[in-house]
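Lab channel / #folding
Pinned by the channel admin:
"Please post every new chain as: sequence first, then the structure tokens as a reply. Keep commentary short and put observations after the output so the thread stays searchable."

First post following the new format, from NK:
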Amino acid sequence: MKTVVILQPQFLPWRGVFEQIRLADEFVHLDDAQFQKGGFTNRVQLKTAHGPLWLTVPVLRHGKLPPIAEVEIDYKTDWREKHLRTFEMSYARAPFLAAARSILADVYAERPRTIAELDIAGLERCCAELGLHPAFSRSSATPVDASQTERLIALLAPRGARRYVTGLGALNYLDEPQLAAAGVEVRVMRYTRRPYPQLHGAFDPHVSILDTIANLGPDAGATLDSPAESWRDAVAAHTAAVAS
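Reply from TO:
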């Protein structure tokens, strides 16, 4: 049964994204979704001695927000060198700093034109480091003139998907019966947020995957152990949590 995960490009995202990818036979970069200012497409948090710190990639925007695949990166300043210095200072004592820094440096050295290209290169490089090897594709390669669940089905069908893994946020908008009628089982990720040794105080599960790699190196992939449960079980658990 082929499992597919579909997510918008994010800049070196948190571990939860890779928990979903771990279960996927194919991962689809939803690069034709509209860019959202203030989201995670061009920024992510690091864990520092002074608390969480945002790394933000500057982008060029003209008028209406375009699809992520069309948003160009702004290279007028030396933000790449600044990011690298910040990362090195924040993780100077991390045992696998070199492995994590090389991912950042190598992706930056390619000087991608768009934020989608940067995000996709970074995510796929991190997947390789974590031992994750799904097939990768882009939604822009098979454009769909639909929205929400209909769009999802139109992306899943040509890929032969019979199972779709998503996050808890999907409980608020996904039409699961419509997917079931299309022959697609929906499973929902239940994030365990299992702690691992980190620098700088109490554990923070929501920082960049580079934190996991810098602290754990070749063992980073072993921390990706969150299960995905059935839609029915996820709804029941959510309902019970709200009621309590």
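NK: The chain has eight helices and ten strands.
TO: also worth noting, The chain has a mean pLDDT of 96.
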